[in-house]
Every structure is written in C-alpha cells, then in structure tokens.
Amino acid sequence: MSSENLLEILNLRVYYFTFDGVVKAVDNVSLAIRKGESLALVGESGCGKSTLGLSIMRLVPRPGRIVDGKIVLHPDMIDLVSAPESEIRRIRGKRIGMVFQDPMTYLNPVMKIGDQIAEGIMQHERCSREEARKRAIELLAKVRIPDPATIASYYPHQLSGGMRQRVVIAIAISCNPELLIADEPTSALDVTVQAQILDLIKELQEELNSSLLLITHDLGIVAETCDRVAVMYAGKIVEEADVYDLFREPKHPYSEGLLRAAQSIESGSREIVTIEGSVPDLLNPPPGCRFHPRCKYAMEKCKIECPPMIDLGNRRVACWLYA
Amino acid sequence: MTMSSRILIQVRNVKKYFPVGSGLFRRSRRYVKAVDGVSFDIPEGETYGLVGESGSGKTTLARVMLGLIEPTDGAVYFRGKNIFKLSKEEMRKIRREMQIIFQDPLASLNPRKTIEQTLKQVFKIHTSLSDDEILDRVKSLLEMVGLTPPERFLSRYPHELSGGQRQRVCIARAIALKPSFLIADEPVSALDVSIRGQIIKLIRRIHEEFNMAYLVITHDIALVKSMCKNVLVMYLGRLVEIGETMDVMKSPLHPYTQMLLSAVPIPNPEIARERKKHRVVIGEPPSPINPPKGCHFHPRCPYVKEICRKERPELIRVDGRLVACHLYM
Q1: Is the pLDDT of residue B1 over 50?
Q2: How confident is the model at residue B3 (pLDDT cuts 50, 70, 90)?
Q3: Nearest residue on chain A to B257, judged by CA atoms?
Q4: Interface residue of A272, A279, A290 to substitute, partner B, most B CBs within 10 Å
Q5: Distance CA B175, CA A182 (A)
Q6: Is B200 touching A (CB cutoff 8 A)?
Q7: How far apart are CA A138 and CA A135, in angstroms?
Q8: Is-contact B193 B110, C-beta < 8 A?
Q9: Which run of H or of E encompasses B137?
Q10: Which pLDDT does position B4 carry in this prediction?
Q11: Which of A35, A185, B129, B143 is most buried by a 10 A CB count?
C-alpha cells in the first residue's frame, strides 16, 4: 500500500432539496482514498455514507444534488463533479466499480447473467460479443461460481442471494477497476454467506491491486476487512484513522461511543455502553458540533461553533477536545 | 430460585409444514418443513436465545409457541396445559401471559392511533379498570420504558417518534399486563448500533423486575451473548445445539455452530484477523423445500461421515448440553 492518493474528495456538499426543506446529507466532507488501500466508511443510518458513495459514481438520485466541492480522480486529475456526462460514462463501471446492498434490484431480472456481464464489458472495451461472453464466464469462475458456463445462461431468480451478490461483484470487477465501492455488500445476506463474500471482495481487491471503499454500519466487518476507517456522523466525517489505532483508542466521542457500544454487546458483559439520545434530523441539525447534544464531554464552544478537522499526525479528528 | 426451576413452556416435537406450489385445483405433494420436530423447555424467569439464519424456521416456531398458528404435529404446553386444546376463554387468559415484540416497530403500531390510545386498548380488552386508573397505568408504563415525561408522548403518533422510541412503545404494550413470557423477534435489528444498547438494557431490566422469561429470536450472535443465558441453535427447521450461551460460545460442539460463530465479525482488528486465518466457511443454507437427507448440514460439514447422509441425528447430552450430531454418538 502506498500513500499515493487515488481519489480525493474536497469540501463536498450534497444536499437533497425535499418538500420539507434542504437535507444536508453530506456537508463539507474531505476525504482521500489511497492507492491499493481498503477504506471503511462507517456510520449509522441516515448519516450520509451512501450518498457519499453515490456522489463518487455521480449517481445521486433526485431531489439530491452535489452543490459544492470536488472529487478528483488521480492520476489524470479528472473532477468527477464537473466532468461532462460522456466522460463519467467512460469512468463509471470501468475505472470505478460498485457493489450495492441488494443484488436483486441491481440485476436485470429478464436478462441472462452471462449477457449482463458481457454487456458491461462491451460498453467499455472494443471486443466482439463472443469474446465478451468468454470473459463473462471467466469472471464467474473468478468469483467462485461453480460450473460458470451453465450458470451464465441462468436468470438472476434462479440463484441464491449469495450467488447473486457474486454476480454483481463479477460485473463490478469486469474491467479491472482502480476503485471498488461496496455499499453494505452483505447486509442482505446470512452470516455464513457474508463471511465468504467479504473474503472474496478482499481477495479480488488485492489481486487487482485496486482500492476499496467499503460502506457499512457494522464495526465487526470493518475490523476484519479494512486498513483505514472514516467515521461519519450526521453528514460529516468526525474521525479518520488507521483501523488498529481507531479500535485501540478512538479519539472522537462519537467513535468512542459507537465502538464501545458494539464491543460491549459483543462481549456479552453485564455493562452495556450506550449513547443516549438519537441521531439528529438532518433537516434541522443541531448548531455547532452535530454530536454535542449526545456528547458527554460537550463544552460551551461545542454548542456554537462547528469543530474543524484537526490533524493529529496519524489521524484526523473533528472535535474541540483536541483543538 | 424456587420459581425459576418450574417449567413455564414445554415445546414437544413441534412440526410445521407449509404446502408449496399448491393452487385451487392442485393438491400439493411438496412441503416446506419450516419446523421439523423441535422440543425444548423454558423454565420460569429464564432467558433464551434462538439463533439461526434466514429460512431456518425461527419465526414460524415462535408463532406456533404463541398459538398463532397450529402445528402440523406436536404440542406446546404452557404451565402444563396444551395451548392447542384450550377453550377460547382459557386461551384469552393465556394470551395475557405471553407477549411478542417484532423487528419493525412501525409495522406493529397502528399509524392512526396515538400512543395513549394504543396502550389504553390493552387494558380495555383485558381488565375492568376505570378510565382514570387506566391512564395512570399507561403513564407509569411509559415511565418504565424510559419515555419521560409521559405527558410528552401520550398524544403523539408512531410516525412522530424515532425508531428506538417506537420500539419502547411496543415493549410498553407487551409488558402492560406483566406477562410471564415474552418473545422478542429481532428486537434491535432495525435499530442503529448506538440505540441497540438502550433497548437491550431495557428488556433485561424488565426481565429482572417481573421475573419474566423471554426468548430472543435473532441471527445476531452478539445479541444472544448480551441478552440470553441459554441458546438454541437452529438449522433448517431443526435444533442442532442447546446449551448455556457462554459454554456454547466458548466451545461450540455442533459443526454448524462452529461455522456460524467463526463467521461472525468481531469488532476488534487483532482478534478478527487472527480468527479469519483459520476460518472454514463453505456453502449456503439450502432450500427448505428439498432439504438434504440425513443431517441437514451434511453437504456443508467438514467432518461428514457416511451415516450423516442417511440418518437424522437426534439431540443427545454431551458435556451438559444437547447436540444433534453423529460425531458425538
């Protein structure tokens, strides 16, 4: 893993202009994904982590819109926010692949699996239908689908949930992407299947030497799979650190609460750590630090002023405790 | 302790088969054996977890235990009485004693009723209290589940509450009549990690205050660890291991339990990565329509023997727990 960046998100703002008001789902987020690393984006539901993933693919659904910021793809420094649609089409699915939570809504139900994979390949590379089909079967073998030549002529409904997700992964890696985004890739799957899919994603990422952005709410998955972690709360990144550093010593009070909560439930101890209160409504987020109403260390300053990202050398934290 | 040794619920060889592919004019010969011969006891005031993957029949078993659906075969005894042989009046009395909360609190609350109306209804149906007395009870219930001050919540509708608050309302409704048994079907799966702990704590506190037994149905091993003294592991309609949670977690005996536990991601990078190296997880749960012969787990089992392909292993006692596996015969 090098420290060279593959993708840089700079001061990104993504808002949803709803009937009830403006939802600031991603609010001034800066984040870099390094070459060859696996970065976890962790947060609870509604914190904006999926929106951030979709922004990179420029697939934010309406009424959402990227209102400000840049997403720069290295080494040719293409800004994915301002690039013309034709350019994005050449990147989406080729240089950046994406795996979603529910394979059944992603796959076309009336198209054979082999054809769906071949379609993506033909979109991006000059090759004949025959060749694309051959590549599709190879890809199915690569994601460990038994008897790939037969399965290629199946429809999605003929496969189990785990097998479908393998097909989605095959499509995502079909053009050897530099970045693979996986948004809750195993939330719809059983635990024993989840372990196999995560192992597969990790192996393929290493084999292709690509970067992985894994979006999840499950800290166990993060601990097992990723090199670095960015913790997101209410539209902002609150902490970014190496996975070992973060789990050993979370600095932001929210990361600390989240981690200790998960660990105390997992350990089966009598004492369960909780974060009191609930996640704020992004239509009306609290002023100052968005975590302050639930924070046990909250100071006067936290209620008024939003903390900046503070660089602590090997990690970054957005909290006044470290300013 | 005298209380807790008495048996509250006995599940005896319960089977529930659903016909598949049947139409109006076609008799079906194929069945989904959702629950296929399950037996266990729950003593008063004890806490049990029922773990299994999707399609293992956990929820069907719960519905049979509450008398919501009739089993194809077998019986459920509540304080010694077969609940499927009771009169309507007797069943009504027992319903007060057995309650359930579901995964999605929004789906189990009436969207057109305020919290006050929802909770009052329980008392109107089951007691002869006056309106004032009922209101007092409702208020103290809300306080008990941590929705304080109660006045702030009485006139609210479910959509005005957060997920955690809604689950608290469901819990309040379930414990209104001080039941002796509660089934919690994935009680925190729809909630965020930071909220889960609050609900776990609440259910545990109620259990201690009322000496209420409960059965937590879940796919989440961590939840069983933090909530249940005992665990039942289910695979494709059958129980494969029963024992004290901490024993089972420390040294799982059934190969399925072993595989399941090794697959659960642990929120600690050092431990998680060390464990991952030795992990053997293969295959997917097969369809319950045509389950494998013999031991249902044999196609995925690393220790499979000839007998496993032919004969169903019965639960036998090994090291103070029950295991259904030919390895221990």
Answers
A1: no
A2: very low
A3: A192
A4: A272
A5: 41
A6: yes
A7: 5
A8: no
A9: helix B131-144
A10: 45
A11: A185
Q: Is the pLDDT of residue B72 over 50?
A: yes
Asked if residue B44 lies in contact with residue B9, where contact means CB atoms within 8 angstroms, the answer is no
Query: What is the Cα Rg of chain A in Å?
Result: 20
pLDDT tens-digit readout, A226-238: 999 999 999 999 9
A38-42 vs A228-233, strand pairing mode: parallel
Which chain B residues touch A296 with a CB distance below 8 Å? none
Digit-coded pLDDT (tens) for A301-312: 999 999 999 999
Q: How confident is the model at residue A157 (pLDDT cuts 50, 70, 90)?
A: very high
Asked whether A46 and A235 are in contact (CB, 8 A), the reply is no
Q: What is the pLDDT of residues A15-25, one digit of tens each?
A: 999 998 999 99
Mean pLDDT value across residues B300-308: 94
CATH architecture of the domain with range B7-97+177-328? 3-Layer(aba) Sandwich (3.40)
Helix, strand, coil shares of chain B, percent, nearest 5, are: 40, 25, 40
Q: Do B259 and A247 touch (CB under 8 A)?
A: no
- Label residue B32 left, alpha or beta by phi (over 0 means left) and psi (-120 to 50 means alpha): beta
Segments making up each domain of chain B, as ranges: 7-97+177-328
Contact between chains at A272 and B201 (C-beta distance less than 8 A): yes
Shortest Cα distance, chain B CAs vs residue A42, angstroms: 11
Burial of B1 (0-12, 13-18, 19+ CB in 10 A): exposed
Quote the CA–CA distance of B27 and B15 in Å, as a whole number: 20
Given a contact cutoff of 8 angstroms between Cβ atoms, the answer to whether B48 and B17 are in contact is no
Q: Which residue has the tokens 């199946």?
A: A154
pTM score: 0.89
Q: A262 contacts in B (CB within 8 Å)?
A: 193, 222, 267
CB of B177 within 8 Å of a chain A CB? The answer is no
Taking an 8 Å cut-off on Cβ atoms, the answer to whether B279 and A195 are in contact is yes
Angle between the N-to-C axes of helices A191-208 and A161-172, in degrees from 0 to 180, rounded to the nearest 10: 20
Read off the pLDDT band of B5 (50, 70, 90). low
Residues 6+ apart with CB under 8 A from A137: A114, A148, A149, A152
Identify whether A75 is preceded by a cis peptide bond (ω within 30 of 0). Answer: yes
- Contact, A201 vs A185, CB < 8 A? yes
Please state the φ and ψ torsions of residue B296, each to the nearest 5 degrees. Answer: -60, -25
Q: What 8-state DSSP symbol labels residue B84?
A: G
Q: Do A262 and B267 touch (CB under 8 A)?
A: yes
